[in-house]
Amino acid sequence: MAFLIPVVLPYKLKHMEPVKKKLEGYKLYVITFVVLSILTLLSVGLTHIRFATPVIIGLVMLIAVIQATIVLFYNMHLKFHDKILVVFVGVIFSLIVLVIIVTMLDFVYR
Predict the structure, then answer these.
(1) Mean local confidence (pLDDT), 62-90
(2) What is the rounded CA–CA span in Å between residue 87 and residue 98?
(3) Would 23 disulfide with which of 28, 33, 83, 101, CB 3.0-4.6 Å?
(4) Has residue 24 got a pLDDT over 70?
(5) CA nearest 92: which of 107, 76, 108?
(6) How far is the C-alpha of 40 from the C-alpha of 46, rounded, in Å?
(7) What per-residue confidence (pLDDT) applies to 21?
(8) In 10 A of CB 60, how many CB atoms?
C-alpha cells in the first residue's frame, strides 16, 4: 500500500506558482471602506463651497466616477479577473455614458 502515498515533488510546477500577491479578507474591505468614506466626505464638503457651480458639479461627478471604479475593481473583484471581463465592463459603461450624453444633448437643443 506504500505506492498509494502521494509523492511531494522537489520542484514547483508552473501552474502552482502564485500569480500576484493580492489583498484578501477584511483588510481589503476596510481599506476600500476608508477610501470611499473619505471621497464621500470630500464630495459633501465640495457642495458647501460657494464657487462656480459647474466646476463643483464636475468635481463631484469626477469623485463619483472614482468611487464607482474603486467599487468595481475591489468589491466586485474585477482587478483579479481576466482582462476581457474588464474590457466588457468598460464598453458597457461607455455605452451608458454615451446614452446619457445623447439624452442631454437632445434635452438642451430641443
Answers:
(1) 79
(2) 16
(3) 28
(4) no
(5) 76
(6) 10
(7) 56
(8) 15
